[in-house]
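To: structure subgroup
Subject: Chain for Friday's discussion

All,

I'm putting the inputs and outputs inline so they're searchable in the archive.
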Amino acid sequence: MTAVRKLGLLVGGPPPVAWAATHASVPFAMPSGDRALRLLFSSRDAEGRSHVGQAAVDLERRTVTGYSAEPLLSPGGLGAFDDHGAMASSLVQHGGEEYLFYIGWTLGVTVPFYTNVGCAVRAAGAEAFSRVSRAPVLARTAADPYFTTAPWVLIENGTWRMWYASATGWEPTHRYHIRYAESEDGIRWRRDGVVCVDYAEEDEFALTRPCVVNDGGVYRMWYSRRGGTYRIGYAESGDGITWTRKDDEAGIDVSPSGWDAEMIEYPCVVDAGERFLFYNGNGYGETGVGWAVIDS
């Protein structure tokens, strides 16, 4: 069993920036210097549309030292795949630039919403991200006929590897599990419907936002799993494609009371002197972003 020590709530929902009306969802963190992190999150405006924000985290003082005054990425134009929200999910560095893989939201008619995976790039020293295209990089196909969402990307030996959630249907509700794709450039992706983490039982319907870490050939995945309410799951793999679920080893559950007493979801694990786990609690990020330490 993995030992996880909760550190409490780090970013409230909403964070103290003028453009955010509610939420701080789907955290992603990466080191930004000695004992410091950049924490990306997505908050909703007054119309309920997600924008990407950023917080600076001081690991010595265990506190946030500042926020981006303006969103790093906002919803796309009317009718675009992301016109109702752009929600950050994963960030990789390549060739001096940062590639942000995000969830683009649009509202539906016969179903409540559609999501597709988009990509935006930020050059070194820039503040905001620019889309590589007004179209998604992971749209609906014969392999993913309903929607794609919640990508996690690593670059290994020149190959871009993505783990993402793909919907398998809408009846009686939206159902999605975790699949795999590869690319040579991060823009054009090959996918054949390879399932990495599938439903464990009939009433489980949402497996999403994988976070993958390669620990010297042992791939570890933390992800969200939902039957009743969200919990954080855990799986291991030798190649990143074939996975064994070990949910009992996630080491974290809801608290007896407070901001994460009802659900926990959308994990992100990052190494920065210690191994930190960032996650959301009640209301899919409505109460904000919390964090914990995973003890080795």
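Points worth raising on Friday:
The chain has one domain: 3-295.
The chain has no helices and 21 strands.

D.
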